[in-house]
Hints:
Elements lengths: L1 H13 L7 H26 L1 H33 L4 H67 L6 H6 L11 E6 L6 E3 L17 E7 L2 E10 L6 E8 L2 H8 L4 E7 L1 H5 L25 E8 L12 E11 L8 E10 L1 H8 L6 H49 L14 H43 L10 E8 L7 E9 L2 E9 L3 H21 L6 E2 L8 E2 L10 H15 L6 E9 L4 E7 L5 E3 L5 E3 L18 E4 L5 E5 L1 H4 L2 E2 L2 E2 L2 H10 L5 H16 L8 E8 L1
Parallel strand pairs: 3-8
Antiparallel strand pairs: 1-2, 1-5, 3-4, 4-5, 6-7, 6-9, 8-9, 10-23, 11-12, 12-15, 13-14, 15-16, 16-19, 17-18, 17-20, 20-23, 21-22
Amino acid sequence: MRLISLELESKLRDKGLWPQSWVAWAALYVLALDLLLFALQSLTRHARPSISDSLEGWVTFLSGLAIVLLAISAYRWLRANLLWRLRNRLIVTYVFIGVIPVFLLVVISLLTLYLFAGQFASFVVTSDITTHLRGMESANRIIAHHLSTHISAGEKLNAELVGEFRSCRPEWGRRQLCVWHGSQPQPFCSGPEGAAAFSAPAFVKDGFREIVRDHGALYLRTATVVGAEPESLRVISSEPLDKGLLEKIAAELGEITLLQPKASAAASGAEDKSTQGILISSGAPVSSDGRQFEPTFTAGAIPAASNAADREIIFGAQLLIVDWASATGQPQRTGALGVHTRPSVLYARLFAALGSYAQVLETLLLIVAIVFAIIELLALFIGTKLTRSITGAVGQLYEATQHVNRGDFSHRITVKSADQLATLANSFNSMTTSIEKLVQEQKEKQRLEGELAIAQEVQAQLYPKLITQLDTLEVHGFCRPARTVSGDYYDFLALSSDRLMLAVGDISGKGISAALLMATIHSAVRAYSFEGMPEPVAVGAAGGSELMLASEFRGSGSSPAALLTLLNHQLYESTPAAKYMTLFLGIYDGATRRLTYSNGGHLQPILISEDGSSQLLECGGTVVGLFDNLSFPEATVQFRPGDVLVAYSDGVTEPENDYGEFGEERLIQLVRANRHLPLERITEIVIAAVLDWIGDNEQPDDVTLVLARAR
């Protein structure tokens, strides 16, 4: 299973689909959690509705967060994979600069034309209805004034008199006329056979001209009031707003559909509420307050298309309808008209007044379109030229890099322009010149590295290879340089068959200078230990008191303190003021199992007993070589079988990471836990722990560790 997982991961990495950032991983985790909660919500929808409802908010939130994170990840993936090539970047740039604005402009223009055409079609329908109402109002006023004249002449108002004023024109065959005079309760009406009389609500005033709803049907009604109360004359004309009327309006326009609220909505009084935002579509239109409308009837027919671009236009218009049974008579938006037509019909209707000039307008529009097309082609040509100039410069740069890759740094790019790409070419030419110089410097560096490698080999020979082990003491040392050569120093010198000197030191600084000084100290310690101190040299404590002749410390009887005193004087006299070292010297006597030691500013060695307790060898003085006329104290420590002496440089305990320094305590714990293992193995464990503590960071200092165990 793990092998399959690794193969899948490898394939996804090769295709660039493996998540590389924390955003991508977060998107996957959020999406997985979202799907889990959605599945849990679906399972508990019927069994535990309360749990399902409580999860709904979390599902919505996690879905939105997943969409945002996935969008960010997708953008980064597209930018990293698709936009890496210059060609793709230029294509995307041209799309955003040239294509998308033109596309948006075309879409906005088409949308504007569609809305304009739909609005114009709705305006034509509502304008025709308004014109019809005005015609009814004009006829109504004429009839009212004629009736008022007859009544003033003493004639009695009756149905026959009202019927005399009905026009013989065809539209009057559908129109009903009702007249009230004074306080008479019932009107005198004249109209089509079977038409029922209607009441006159109190809100009807002179000049009333609206679409009304009366007993579930729609009518066009106008009212004229002549005279003052109580002898006023009210004349009301009414004509059904039905399919017949809309057929006349739709004859030269298209298909018109009348929509009214569903019966359930009308019964509940929903038709008296505002219906702002009615949508006309193939389904049931829905208003902004949630009410649905249904078609009452459809009049007319959709005209045939004149060409392929003559698409259908569907739009809607709201109707302001007055409820005849209401007390206020305020118009309510309770109806709608759906208009279904084509642009060619609207164009002919809009420019009908221009006559032959309409063809001129078409020609002007065609010329404008051609000019726009020419401008777009010119922009494309200019963009192509610019692209060739950019990609050509990039091609020259690529060719130049191939010369550089072959080691030909004499190649130069020919610069013919004065733009930013030309500056880049000049910069490349300058770079190749600099590379030629760097190659020479690199050769010199390689020569120095070769010399450093030789110095490293020489220094490696200075560290003890064959270590003499005493019957009662075994020793081991290790040094890992931070650079090519080390400034740390350690040595084991057999003074006799049962006496051994241990030395551990650290030169100030790093690199070649520290390595040279380390070699000097190595030679001096061995010379003084084996041959004794020079006869003329005298050393003493500060202030010159208690002088001791070096001859007193000759040969194998020399003490660590005396050796440190002599080395301090030699370093002080032969090195710059800034150069010094720390040095621990100890002489182990196998006969007595005692270690006599002195410390010149070095880190205090640690003695770990067989029972696990530890102590520091604290006796010592300041650093060696910084001050003259110094003496160093010395002390003796008794070894027991199993005791382990740990001497080290600051490269062991001072490396840092996010958790702080490696530290002395951690070193003690490691040696204590492994004190019964071979010294080589203990060294490996400690060095591995130090390197693991450093991690990927550069090793800050030389790492030196010396171990000695009594047996």
